[in-house]
């Protein structure tokens, strides 16, 4: 081969080499674009630090497929509650995010539901509740997170204030638009009892087994209630002033009516609910001066419940103060520990 020929071969090889390099570089470039697109559009950190789960858009990570809206499965019916949770067989779902958040894999749920539970020293009930409620909510195709709001210390319990705190803390993590405030000891007995919000605030614990599945009194509004974000803001949340057992649920009922809304309840068959039996907890004694179902807790001599309507716009979400202690992400729930202070009439 002469000098000229070897130069031609060298040129050809160089062109082929450069061409393949160019393809590699271009591939890398597109890979980068795809990766960037993925990280912008499909995963978005909610809160920095200890928060481990991410919101997703309705696009599949890399297929760009828009998911359909979720529909309910046709086989919803009576629910078999398990009261004895086997030690080695707690509910598991590998897809579920730490902190007790889950959303359907193949469809978009319209409601983003925060379930808020007031809590102190009820570990055994919480275990039962979680074991039964995760499969229940997943069957209903819910996009939901579980928030257990724990009151620190031994001072009188304040269920309503804890629930207000749960509303605020949950919103720091995700764009929730429906809030279900639930006692830790109440579990629905039928999957058709939809854990969803409605056009009016919903009472969901009106057909309890312990009361023979009958509504105890017409204005009962305790146990489990569901509010859209707008409905809850409209009533300024719960009162913060009910320390000890009773009255806070009746106060909330009055707020709903005063704000011009109605209470919704589904029919008694669908709404059949299990209330786990228990004794009254220490630190949750009756409100001062309450007699039976007449909770006449007072502040500076003024009966709270009687003045519920007058107080509602100054006592609630807009007057809430508490000290956040820490948030703990458990496998099946998020626990928020808070110091909520003490009733005004307790001196230290
Ligand atoms: C009724 C109501 C409840 C609430 C309460 C009066 C129903 C079905 N339930 O429940 O919603 O209005 O009367 O305040 O109408 N808790 C703890 N630790 C404590 C004390 C309470 O975790 O030391 C939480 C727990 O989630 C419990 C809830 O507060 O389920 C309500 O307290 P309860 O179960 O003692 O009251 P109960 O069953 O009379
Ligand atoms: Mn109870």
TrEMBL record:
Cofactor: Mn(2+)
GO molecular function, one term: beta-N-acetylglucosaminylglycopeptide beta-1,4-galactosyltransferase activity
First-listed, main subcellular location of the protein, grouped into a coarse class: Golgi
Annotated localization: Golgi apparatus membrane
Pathway note: Protein modification; protein glycosylation
Compositional bias of kind Basic and acidic residues: 278-288
Ranges where the Galactosyltransferase C-terminal domain occurs: 202-279
GO biological processes: carbohydrate metabolic process; protein N-linked glycosylation
Membrane topology: Single-pass type II membrane protein
Galactosyltransferase N-terminal domain ranges (all copies): 90-198
Record region (Disordered): 275-295
Enzyme class, first EC level, given as a word: transferase
One Gene Ontology cellular component annotation held by this UniProt entry: Golgi cisterna membrane
TM stretches of this protein: 6-25
Protein name: Beta-1,4-galactosyltransferase
